[in-house]
């Protein structure tokens, strides 16, 4: 159902940093209640891990841990925010060696119970990641719902974004990614999904969040496309990310700005449901039934009164999505040379003979606006 909304759309306020506040209060209370007998002081509570490849013979593993005694009173005598986290780094010939050296230099036992992000340096992503995946899977303490994130440049740099802020940078990054997922504008991308990609031959591609750390903030780059154990490209635009999210049946995608009658309208999808069928001519028909509303349009009265005008508007939105989807599929096949929509999974499950023929199936994309 296409609804017309005369209220101009705007950005929603950022969520209150619940994770960060809960974390501070939790550890502050523990510290105040048990004082010097605090058992958590014997552990280094790992909030995040960054893994970088320095060169062909050396890796660097970095972790960020809270300074428990500073969290209890994060304002120092001068009235400034006391440092609440510490970053530890170590190098080695392998990832295991680097982590072992890191444990050796830290007198406390590493605890991964609150671990929610693993940052992967761009150099590792562009090279083979099989050793990285094996390393992550063999550490049973790591949460399978944790977020793998590919970082442009060195992953370690993400720990030092906006250091003077009272908010932990890694929590801010986690909040950005979870906010997108909770609003169903981006696809699922956690360690569980990450592992599945590497263990199942039918999952020919994998999408992972990609960010770039700046001096005072994180820049969301898009979704890195993994083929096998390498990163082969990045989906940068909101249009591409939205199409992938819808065709994977994992959400509604971002709002879209669409040219119509010499103005730019904003279409806000509210529901997306994907269906598919296989035709006798060997073509897959993918249909994404979209429901949404128009957030911004000048001639609202004309839309309400004229059925033809509304039909033209609806057709324009449908054509927009179909064109973007067609271009994205062409890009995936020619540039990435991979199946980013996991179509092979459906081919194998329902039409095994077609799957065994190999190659990319023909696609017919439809985006009817209900």
Largest sheet: number of strands, sense, barrel closure:
8 strands, mixed
Poorly predicted parts: 5-18
Name the average pLDDT. 78
Helix content: 25-40%
Task: Summarize the structure in words.
By secondary structure, the protein is an alpha/beta fold. It has helices spanning 18-34, 68-72, 95-105, 122-126, 130-138, 169-182, 191-199, 238-247, 300-305, 307-336, 343-350, 352-357; strands spanning 2-4, 43-45, 48-55, 58-66, 85-92, 109-111, 117-121, 147-151, 206-213, 218-227, 230-235, 256-260, 263-278, 283-296, 362-366. An 8-stranded mixed beta sheet has the order 5-4-3-7-8-9-10-11, sandwiched between helices. Strands 1, 12, 13, 14 and 15 form a 5-stranded mixed beta sheet that branches. Strand 13 and strand 14 (283-296) form a beta hairpin. The longest helix is centred in the C-terminal third of the chain and has 30 residues, at 307-336.
Summary keywords:
eight-stranded mixed β-sheet; 370 residues; 35% helix; globular; single chain; alpha/beta
């Amino acid at each position: 159902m296409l609804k017309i909304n005369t209220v101009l759309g705007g950005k929603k306020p950022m969520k209150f940093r619940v994770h960060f506040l809960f974390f501070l209060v939790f550890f502050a209370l523990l510290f105040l209640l048990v004082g010097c007998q605090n058992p958590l002081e014997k552990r280094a509570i790992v909030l995040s891990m960054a893994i970088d490849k320095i060169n062909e013979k050396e890796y660097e593993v970095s972790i960020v841990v809270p300074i428990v005694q500073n969290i209890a009173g994060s304002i120092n005598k001068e009235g400034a925010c006391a440092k609440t986290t510490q970053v530890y780094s170590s190098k080695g010939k392998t990832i295991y060696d680097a982590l072992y050296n890191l444990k050796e230099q830290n007198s406390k036992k590493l605890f991964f119970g609150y671990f929610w992000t693993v940052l992967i340096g761009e150099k590792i992503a562009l090279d083979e990641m099989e050793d990285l995946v094996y390393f992550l899977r063999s550490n049973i303490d790591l949460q399978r719902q944790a977020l793998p994130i590919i970082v442009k440049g060195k992953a370690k740099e993400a720990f030092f974004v906006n250091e003077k802020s009272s908010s932990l940078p890694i929590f801010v990054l986690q909040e950005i990614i979870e906010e997108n997922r909770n609003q169903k504008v981006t696809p699922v991308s956690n360690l569980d999904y990450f592992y599945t990609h590497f263990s199942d031959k039918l999952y020919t591609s994998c999408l992972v969040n990609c960010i770039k750390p700046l001096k005072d903030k994180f820049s969301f780059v898009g979704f890195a496309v993994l083929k096998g154990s390498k990163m082969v490209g990045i989906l940068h635009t909101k249009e591409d990310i939205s199409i992938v999210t819808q065709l994977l049946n994992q959400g509604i995608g971002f709002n879209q700005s669409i040219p119509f009658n010499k103005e730019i309208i904003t279409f806000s999808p509210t529901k997306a449901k994907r269906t598919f069928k296989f035709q006798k001519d060997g073509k897959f028909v993918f249909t994404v039934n979209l429901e949404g509303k128009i957030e911004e349009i000048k001639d609202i009265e004309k839309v309400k009164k004229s059925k033809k005008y509304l039909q033209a508007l609806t057709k324009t939105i449908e054509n927009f999505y179909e064109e973007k989807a067609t271009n994205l599929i062409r890009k995936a096949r020619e540039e990435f040379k991979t199946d980013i929509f996991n179509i092979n999974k459906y081919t194998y499950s329902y039409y095994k003979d077609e799957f065994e023929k190999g190659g990319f199936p023909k696609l017919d994309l439809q985006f009817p606006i209900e």
